[in-house]
Design a protein that fits this description.
The protein is built from 17 helices and 10 strands. It has 450 residues and is an alpha/beta fold. The chain has 2 domains: 2-119, no CATH class; 125-254 and 287-436, Rossmann fold (3-Layer(aba) Sandwich), CATH 3.40.50. A 7-stranded parallel sheet has the order 3-2-1-7-8-9-10, sandwiched between helices. A 3-stranded antiparallel sheet has the order 5-4-6, covered by helices on one side. Strand 1, helix 7 (136-146) and strand 2 (153-157) form a beta-alpha-beta unit. The longest helix is centred in the N-terminal third of the chain and has 28 residues, at 30-57. The radius of gyration is 30 Å and the shape is elongated.
């Protein structure tokens, strides 16, 4: 019998410990708890005055001994005050806990404690204002890691995509391409399980929907219903319970154009369209947008100017990152913003875009369009081991690069897919660098806990 009762005490102490965690700084609970206690005290004082008046002025009746018993008059006044105070406090705590649990039940994940949900929400809500510029799977991986640290995230993506489902919708409906925006919305979703998988679901060619993803079709339908692409993106974010915002760099219908040096020939050809540039399989000399100098989407500029941290990359260098920087307003806002600025170099090269590129080559191409010495820190991967797909090489950190740029290097690869960043490692490294705020870290300490 005694052995059965043993586990009850630690469990009871754990429960008491969880209750005291509600008093931890930053939860915003103590101020409201104090207000409830003060209000309850005033009500109690008023009720006590009525009872005293009733007890003193009412003739001797049968219920007066009962009142005396319930008021604990057989105890001294200090002990009575302590008993009533502790009892009242316990009832308040139980009542407030019960109400909050009932009201918040629809928003709490199964198996997760209410206190943990509140703590994580408050932590993310007070996180830094982060603006990320990039595209593709690299940006999605970064967003999945960052959303654990902050809900104040804005992803800026290009609208120059003209391939696949996005390109088809762009040509047939005249709307802006939703592909990169859809990927970012999914990455920032609070629940990346069933709903997000449904949003990313792609129909087969034989289904009569030309391989479109359900998310692209949903954004297209919302664009038609709401009358604007930006409102459709915002509504899609509400459906997915997105932690942050996803904004297009511009609302203009732009086309990415590149001059590509044909391999083995001394001539340069002009390629129109983002999807056709990697297929040229040559050396890209320069890229630009047509029509030239499109206006930026105003909330995008506001996000850059209000940011605590701006992160560029990862993503396709010429077809995902640079199209955003070719919008002159974004370029200018990036330079004048007082935020801490990071550039995340891709782990590997991309066939048709950055063949043979090192980490330094990526940085120099970016600086060609935004100017030199803009980044506070350049984040590079230093693990160049692992099997890669055919035609892909590691974009390694070359010797002496730290003398030119403020470099932070670390093992950032995904063990299951070495050509991609590990979401958690990359996000932790960025947040660590931001929290340091002591200047660029020129070398990586091997014992830094990621």
């Amino acid at each position: 019998m005694q052995s059965r009762n043993k586990p009850k005490l630690p469990r009871f102490l754990a429960t008491i410990g969880r209750l005291f965690r509600w008093l931890a700084p930053g939860l915003g609970v103590k101020r409201w708890g104090l207000l409830i206690v003060l209000g309850t005290t005033l009500i109690s004082l008023g009720f006590a005055v009525v009872l005293l008046e009733l007890y003193r002025t009412t003739p001797d009746r049968w219920y007066l001994p009962l009142i005396a018993l319930l008021s604990l008059r057989f105890l001294s006044r200090p002990i009575r005050a302590l008993v009533f105070g502790m009892g009242g406090l316990l009832l308040i705590v139980i009542g407030v806990w019960g109400i909050n649990r009932t009201l918040l039940r629809p928003f709490i994940r199964p198996g997760k404690h209410l206190l943990d949900s509140v703590t994580h929400f408050q932590k993310r809500d007070r996180g830094p204002k982060i603006v990320v510029i990039g595209g593709g799977t690299g940006l999605s991986a970064l967003l999945r890691g960052l959303k654990k640290h902050s809900s104040n995230i804005t992803a800026i993506v290009t609208v120059a995509d003209d391939g696949g489902s996005s390109g088809e919708l762009r040509r047939t409906t005249g709307m802006l391409p939703p592909g990169d925006i859809r990927n970012c919305l999914t990455a920032l979703s609070s629940d990346e399980e069933l709903l997000s998988q449904l949003f990313q679901y792609r129909f087969g060619e034989g289904a009569g929907l030309n391989g479109h993803s359900l998310g692209n079709l949903l954004i297209t339908a919302l664009t038609d219903i709401t009358g604007s692409f930006e409102e459709a993106v915002a509504e899609s974010g509400r459906v997915l319970a997105v932690q942050g915002k996803v904004l297009p760099s511009t609302l203009h219908d732009v086309c990415l154009v590149a001059e590509v040096e044909v391999p083995g020939e001394a001539k340069v050809v002009r390629i129109r369209g983002e999807s056709g540039i990697p297929k040229a399989a040559g050396k890209i000399k320069r890229v630009w947008l047509e029509p030239d100098n499109p206006l930026a989407y105003p909330p995008t500029i506001q996000a850059l100017l209000n940011a605590d941290m701006i992160i560029m990359g990862p993503g396709s260098l010429y077809t995902s990152i640079l199209p955003n920087l070719l919008v002159s307003d974004i370029n200018e806002a990036l330079r004048v913003s007082r935020a801490l600025k990071f550039y995340i170099c891709n782990i590997t090269t991309q066939p048709g875009e950055t063949d043979g590129f090192s980490c330094g080559d990526h940085i120099r191409v970016i600086e060609k369009y935004i100017g030199k010495h803009l980044f506070d820190t350049v984040i590079c991967n230093d693990n160049c081991g692992g099997r890669l797909p055919a035609g892909v090489e590691f974009a390694c950190l070359e010797e002496g690069l730290e003398k030119e740029y403020p470099i932070y290097s670390s093992d950032l690869v995904n063990s299951e897919a070495p050509w991609r960043h590990d979401s958690e490692r990359l996000a932790n490294a960025i947040i660590d660098l931001y929290n340091e705020r002591t200047g660029p870290m020129l070398t990586r300490e091997n014992d830094l806990d990621l």
